[in-house]
């Protein structure tokens, strides 16, 4: 029909080959290279005589040959035609290798490069995210070549093959049972696989074989249940049916996608078909046979006049035939033949005419250096209607001019198989790993099959199907689902939060209390209880405690360079002065009683110089430690992004942890010495003795700082600073409360005990009245 239309159109066109008539002969290849060789030799020899180079009685002169869909057969034909320099056009474009050397330009291929089709099909899988697919190939050299080409290319793009099956071939009737067994195995493989997408690289006869698949499900050796499949058809395939298959169920192919050679719209072709009638005067030699096979009828024998049971009237309509058997529109391959015929006609016209002007054409046809047509592919969607007619809906295109974005497709225009309920099907070995998980390849299986494992702590997976989880930047941390990073909050101990405000308030309150106690002692500096406890040491101790309470403000607020340099050293020196004063008080009491013994040499050590020397020497050693610390390992502002996962902690880097614990260790040494001296002096007469209160204060001091070390090491962030502030406040408050509360009680509540008349007697809470 297609050749009849094209030759008729050319012969009616007075602008092409005037006074010449273009005709054609059709030879069947029988899908067999041997038969094709025979047909080619008949074409080049005298009609019906297989005698090479004997052409004397030929009634027709072949000027060009249009090949079929099989590339290997086309190459076999071309090898013979090359000898006689007869031009040939083929409807395939595989690499012709050693045959096409460039010296013979008579072999033109009316389809695009095969590599473009590979890229288009791969782009189709990547577009729909189909990574687990099946493939059917021909059981020949072309099939092996396709596997060798596609498997590495698809694997590089993370597409795996669930199975690769070879289409059964049929050559002799004795092979039918073997072919049937192969078909059953292929059906079981297709229907039992998890792959919902299946690419088929076959030829025009492949669909004839595949149409048997729905009827294999009833056989006893077939165990898989039928289901929906997305068939991806290569451009070499046409939806063809044999006569006995024209009314077969074709629903298995509903929703299939195919790449076809780009074709134009030819309204004249449909009108041509509608006007064809086997009874007309213009009927060719093929239409009567075609008509009888298509409509299942017989024409009355014109010789015998015998009428058939189902006679052909000639009024049957071609448009009533199922689309799977005959299409009223021009397919991609038919359009290639259409272009090939016109190319031959224009070449003949140019040869027969001295006027080589450009003739009117619908579009320009160009070939590349390999003799392949420079054009793209159309992506068609096969939609099955109720009368088993397929409608080819163009849903996309593969563009050869844009290799990076070769595929253009309209998802909304696609009609999927009824099995998928018009939802885009999935074709994956493993459903996508959700964000927050990563892929773990299953041992012994393709890389497309994997387990989804949660990300380890501290890592995230922002996208689906990530090969590995990633760590957040230092300034962010994973959310609960571990699928994105949250910016960390900058934190430090500041005044506006409850913890910082509470510590600041307690420090200020304790400072004011200490100042009031100091003022009270200054006011009553001439009273016996103040005089008896060494006023200078008392004032020094109170001032150092006042400064201890105030130094907590160096720890609150955003760390600065100055505050980082001062806070630990200031605290260490001031606290060493306070503890040294306590030690000096205790030593003074002990030495005073030892000096009262007859002949004691301690008298020369008594006096204010002893207490001052103790305080100065003990404080000087701590000052030396702090000076070395500042000189060699100065503290500086720093940020800690690792300790607390959700926070960026602004802190003071102490420079040297060893020096920090040296300062604390020295304070512990002074406190231990004070505790031991006070403990031994606790039984001295109460009129001179405050050792038992010092003992208790040192117990509080040591308890606080002994518990500080493990607590400090177990806390993180700003709470470490809070623990140190609390220890400073608690130990300072312990000294203030234990040592000075009894004296304040006497001064304020029992003033009668703080008089010179009470000097010879014993005062409560210790002390001497003189």
UniProtKB/TrEMBL annotation:
Pfam families xref list: 7tm_3 (PF00003), ANF_receptor (PF01094), NCD3G (PF07562)
Example GO molecular function: G protein-coupled receptor activity
Entry keyword Nuclease: no
Domain G-protein coupled receptors family 3 profile: 499-763
Domain of life: Eukaryota
InterPro entries attached to this UniProt entry: ANF_lig-bd_rcpt (IPR001828), GPCR_3 (IPR000337), GPCR_3_9-Cys_dom (IPR011500), GPCR_3_9-Cys_sf (IPR038550), GPCR_3_C (IPR017978), GPCR_3_Ca_sens_rcpt-rel (IPR000068), GPCR_3_CS (IPR017979), GPCR_3_vmron_rcpt_2 (IPR004073)
Chief subcellular location: membrane
Spans traversing the lipid bilayer: 499-522, 537-557, 569-593, 614-636, 656-681, 693-713, 725-748
Similarity section: Belongs to the G-protein coupled receptor 3 family.
The protein's name in its UniProt record: G-protein coupled receptors family 3 profile domain-containing protein
Organism: Varanus komodoensis (Komodo dragon)
């Amino acid at each position: 029909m297609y050749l009849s239309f094209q030759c008729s159109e050319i012969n009616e066109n007075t602008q092409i080959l005037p006074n010449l008539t273009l005709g054609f002969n059709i030879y069947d290849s029988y899908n067999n290279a041997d038969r094709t060789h025979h047909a080619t030799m008949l074409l080049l020899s005298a009609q019906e005589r297989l005698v090479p180079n004997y052409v004397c009685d030929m009634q027709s002169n072949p000027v060009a040959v249009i090949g079929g869909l099989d590339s290997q057969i086309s190459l076999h034909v071309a090898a013979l035609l090359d000898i006689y320099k007869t031009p040939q056009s083929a409807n395939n474009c595989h690499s012709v290798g050693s045959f096409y050397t460039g010296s013979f330009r008579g072999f033109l291929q009316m389809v695009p490069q095969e590599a473009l089709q590979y890229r288009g099909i791969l782009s189709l899988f990547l577009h729909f995210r189909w990574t687990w697919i099946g493939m059917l190939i021909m059981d020949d050299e072309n099939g092996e070549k396709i596997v060798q080409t596609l498997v590495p290319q698809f694997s590089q793009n993370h597409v795996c093959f669930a199975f690769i099956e070879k289409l059964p071939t049929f050559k002799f009737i004795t092979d039918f049972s073997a072919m049937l067994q192969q078909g059953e195995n292929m059906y079981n493989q297709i229907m039992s696989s998890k792959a919902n997408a299946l690419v088929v690289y076959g030829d025009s006869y492949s669909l004839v074989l595949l149409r048997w698949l729905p009827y294999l499900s009833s056989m006893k050796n077939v165990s898989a249940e039928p289901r929906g499949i997305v068939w991806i058809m290569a451009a070499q395939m046409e939806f063809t049916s044999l006569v006995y298959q024209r009314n077969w169920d074709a629903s298995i192919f509903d929703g299939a996608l195919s790449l076809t050679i780009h074709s134009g719209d030819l309204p004249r072709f449909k009108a041509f078909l509608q006007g064809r009638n086997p009874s007309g005067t213009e009927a060719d030699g093929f239409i009567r046979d075609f008509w009888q096979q298509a409509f299942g009828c017989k024409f009355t024998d014109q010789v015998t006049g015998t009428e058939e049971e189902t006679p052909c009237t000639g009024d049957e309509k071609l448009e009533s035939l199922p689309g799977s058997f005959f299409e009223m529109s021009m397919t991609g391959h038919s359009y290639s033949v259409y272009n090939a015929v016109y190319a031959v006609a224009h070449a003949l016209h140019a040869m027969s005419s001295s006027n080589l002007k450009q003739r009117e054409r619908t579009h320009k046809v160009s070939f590349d250096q390999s003799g392949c047509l420079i054009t793209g592919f159309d992506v068609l969607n096969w939609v099955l209607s109720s009368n088993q007619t397929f409608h080819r809906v163009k849903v996309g295109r593969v563009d050869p001019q844009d290799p990076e974005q070769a595929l253009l497709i309209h998802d909304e225009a696609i009609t999927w198989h009824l099995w998928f309920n018009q939802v885009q099907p999935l074709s994956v070995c493993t459903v996508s790993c959700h964000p927050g998980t990563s892929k773990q390849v299953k041992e012994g299986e393709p890389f497309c099959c994997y387990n989804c494992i949660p990300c380890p702590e501290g890592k995230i997976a922002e996208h689906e199907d990530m090969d590995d989880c990633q760590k957040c930047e230092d300034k962010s941390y994973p959310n609960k689902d571990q699928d994105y990073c949250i910016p960390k909050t900058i934190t430090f101990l500041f005044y506006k939060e409850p913890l910082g405000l509470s510590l600041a308030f307690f420090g200020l309150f304790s400072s004011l209390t200490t100042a009031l106690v100091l003022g009270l002692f200054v006011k009553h500096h001439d009273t016996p209880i103040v005089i008896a406890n060494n006023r200078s040491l008392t004032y020094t101790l109170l001032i150092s405690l006042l400064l201890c309470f105030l130094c907590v403000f160096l720890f609150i607020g955003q760390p600065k360079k100055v505050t980082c340099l001062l806070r630990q050293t200031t605290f260490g020196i001031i606290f060493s002065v306070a503890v040294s004063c306590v030690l000096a008080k205790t030593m003074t009491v002990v030495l005073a009683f030892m000096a009262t013994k007859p002949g004691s040499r301690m008298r020369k050590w008594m006096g204010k110089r002893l207490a001052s020397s103790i305080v100065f020497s003990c404080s000087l050693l701590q000052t030396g430690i702090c000076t070395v610390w500042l000189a060699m390992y100065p503290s500086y502002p720093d940020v800690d992004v690792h300790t607390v996962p959700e926070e960026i902690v602004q802190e003071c880097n102490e420079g040297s942890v060893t020096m920090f614990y040296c300062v604390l260790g020295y304070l512990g040494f002074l406190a231990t010495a004070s505790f031991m001296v006070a403990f031994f002096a606790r039984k001295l007469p109460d009129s001179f003795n405050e050792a038992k209160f010092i003992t208790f204060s040192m117990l509080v001091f040591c308890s606080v700082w002994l518990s500080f070390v493990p607590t400090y090491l177990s806390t993180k962030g700003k709470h470490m600073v809070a623990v140190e502030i609390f220890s400073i406040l608690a130990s300072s408050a312990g000294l203030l409360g234990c040592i000075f509360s009894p004296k304040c009680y006497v001064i304020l509540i029992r003033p009668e005990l703080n008089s010179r008349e009470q000097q010879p007697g014993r005062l409560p809470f210790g002390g001497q009245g003189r």
